Amino acid sequence: MMEDWRRECDLLAQLLEEEVSNYRQLIKELKNQSKYLRQGDADSIQKSVRTIAERVKTIQILEEEIKKTGETILNGFGKGERNQTLSSLLPFLPITHQGRLSSSQKILLQLKGWAAQINDQNRAFIREYTTFLSELISPWFGHPKESEGYPGQKRPSIIPAFALNREV
């Protein structure tokens, strides 16, 4: 019995390390995507989007495996309850395993934050660019007609986000 939970803890640590590695690769690809967006390289953007989707799918699979493994370990200690996190497992483990798992959790939390930040920046760039393009081509195609149900209302003027930030 003692050997089983150690083996499960080693598996859990390995899965967490794989998740860390996948997040690092995801961040690298998100940075590449930023570069491709600014260059306007459509083929590279498409490849990047596919790579990111594959990486996210891998991360989701790993997260599910981590959850199952954690539950297995908790069940082995007789502490298995639904919706428990890895943090609830830590008090039952020896110090060496606690440190290893806790360290991986902290790294993952930081990497998730970075990935979200880069992804938000990419989304903002795309929104600003599409706003710029729509404002650029709208004079050729005209403005949509005013609603007949609300006479006298004008379209609100929109200040494009790119006008506020000259770096874009």
Characterization of this structure:
With 168 residues, this protein is mostly helical. It has one domain (2-122): Up-down Bundle (Methane Monooxygenase Hydroxylase, Chain G, domain 1), CATH 1.20.58. Helices cover 76% and strands 0% of the residues. The mean pLDDT is 82.
* CATH fold name: Methane Monooxygenase Hydroxylase, Chain G, domain 1
Q: Based on helices, strands and strand pairing, what is the structural class?
A: mainly alpha
Count of individual helical segments: 5
Averaged pLDDT: 82
| Helicity range | over 70%
Order of helical and strand elements? HHHHH
- Main sheet overview: none
Summarize the structure.
This protein is mainly α and about 170 residues long. The chain has helices spanning about 1-40, 40-75, 85-90, 95-140, 160-165.
Task: Give a topology summary.
Elements: H1 2-39, H2 42-76, H3 86-89, H4 95-141, H5 161-164
Helix pairs in contact: 1-2, 1-4
Primary descriptors:
168 residues; mainly alpha; Methane Monooxygenase Hydroxylase, Chain G, domain 1; elongated; single chain
